[in-house]
Design brief:
It is a single chain. This protein is α/β, with parallel strands linked by helices. The protein folds into 2 domains: 191 residues, Quinone Oxidoreductase, Chain A, domain 1, CATH 3.90.180.10; 140 residues, 3-Layer(aba) Sandwich (Rossmann fold). Strands 3, 5, 6, 9, 10, 17 and 18 form a 7-stranded mixed β-sheet that branches. The protein has a 6-stranded parallel β-sheet with strand order 13-12-11-14-15-16, with helices on both faces. Helix 8 links the parallel strand 14 and strand 15. Helix 4 packs across helix 5 and helix 7 packs parallel to helix 8. The longest helix has 13 residues. 52% of the residues are buried. Its EC number is 1.1.1.306.
Length: 363
């Protein structure tokens, strides 16, 4: 039988979110229902509310989650009732050209649940990133669930989006290894995750750059060896600051966790010759980039963008949870506060003001 539960929705652009009744259908073939235990408040949910993703209102917000599988549909073999899982928004198909060539983290045909969750009047809800987990229960494709060792949901659920994006940008996309020098531009949640991932990989010098002194304090706590307050700096001054801390050469890997043309150019020129640039901050559609083509040719190296940290959830989530439980990866430091499901709107305000790394809804 379909179930009615409480969930947080956005009805129109810029309007405050609201807690209301939503209907969860019985899972169909390949689908599961998850009892949500936690959900991080991510910038992407705010972008949905503001119409920055699409205008397919109403949205069921929330996507950075952990929970327990409570129902499974026909043909589901990936998980079983009672499994503790982290949700992901890229259930791989296993059959596209990326999957067939052994690179499933690039899957070009990811999918979500076929059915829609609805309001009680039958209005279909567009689930944020195909998850919609600011709710007591949610319906997802079975492949969006990764079974992991049971742990604090508020902590490990953050791997479902922003933390994995940053960690993966460093380790998977940037290929940071022991002794490499790394600079991370932007020390918000994703940038700090890239810093923590670089530290986990054994990087030597790790430089955090931001215009907010509080964020630089977070970065230092998560593994940055050097911090640079870039407020008021020109692009050339930012590049020089990176070079000064890397023997005059520039960093082996520079991660742009902001996603502006200016910060990308800082990353491009702030890396060493043959170094790597990783773009993980998300640009907006109107942004354009101008760089002399001769500089692209002459400096060599790799210019990469990072999709969800180029992660493979079944590979990466269990490993990172295990490292967290061993005390080798401080994932708990990303949880700034634990809140109730009624507090999402106020959490958006704190996020916009740079007061938190992550607010986490506990259900």
């Amino acid at each position: 039988m379909p179930q009615t539960v409480k969930g947080v929705i956005s009805r129109s652009k810029g309007a405050p979110v609201e807690l209301t009744d939503i209907v969860i259908p019985d899972p169909g073939p390949g689908e599961v229902v998850v009892d949500v235990k936690s959900c991080g408040v991510c910038h992407t949910d705010f972008h949905y509310r503001e119409g920055g993703i699409s205008d397919d209102y109403p949205f069921l917000l929330g996507h950075e989650s952990a929970g327990v599988v409570s129902e499974v549909g026909e043909g589901v073999t990936e998980v079983a009732i009672g499994d503790f899982v982290i949700l992901n928004w890229r259930a791989i198909c296993g059959d596209c050209r990326a999957c067939k060539r052994g690179e499933p983290w690039y899957c070009f045909d990811t999918h979500n649940a076929s059915q829609k969750m609805t309001l009680t009047d039958g209005t279909e809800l567009e689930a944020a990133l195909g998850i919609g987990s600011f709710a007591e229960k949610t319906l997802v494709a079975a492949g969006q669930c990764t079974k992991v060792p049971e742990a604090d949901p508020a902590v490990v659920g953050l791997l479902g989006c922003g933390m994995m994006a940053g960690i993966g940008a460093a380790i998977n996309t940037g290929e940071v290894t022991r002794g490499k020098t790394v600079a991370v531009i932007g020390a918000g949640g994703v940038g700090c995750a890239a810093i923590a991932g670089s530290a986990l990989a054994g990087a030597g010098t790790i430089i955090a750059l931001d215009i907010d002194a509080k964020k630089l304090t977070w970065a230092k706590d998560l593994g940055a060896t050097d911090t640079v307050d870039t407020k008021g700096m020109s692009e050339d001054e930012v590049v020089a600051a990176i070079q000064e801390r890397t023997g005059g050469f520039g960093a082996d890997v520079v991660i742009d966790a902001v996603g502006l043309p200016a910060t990308w150019r800082q990353a491009f020129y702030g890396r060493d010759l043959a170094g790597t640039v990783v773009l993980v901050g998300v640009p907006t559609p109107e942004m354009e980039l101008t760089v002399p083509l001769l500089d692209v040719f002459g400096r060599g190296g790799k210019l990469k963008s990072s999709w969800y940290g180029d992660c493979l959830p079944d590979r990466d989530f269990p490993m990172l949870v295990d490292l967290y439980q061993q005390g080798r990866f401080p994932l708990e430091k990303f949880v700034s506060e634990r809140i109730g499901i009624n507090d999402v709107e106020s959490a958006f305000e704190k996020m916009a003001n740079g007061q938190v790394l992550r607010s986490v809804v506990e259900l």
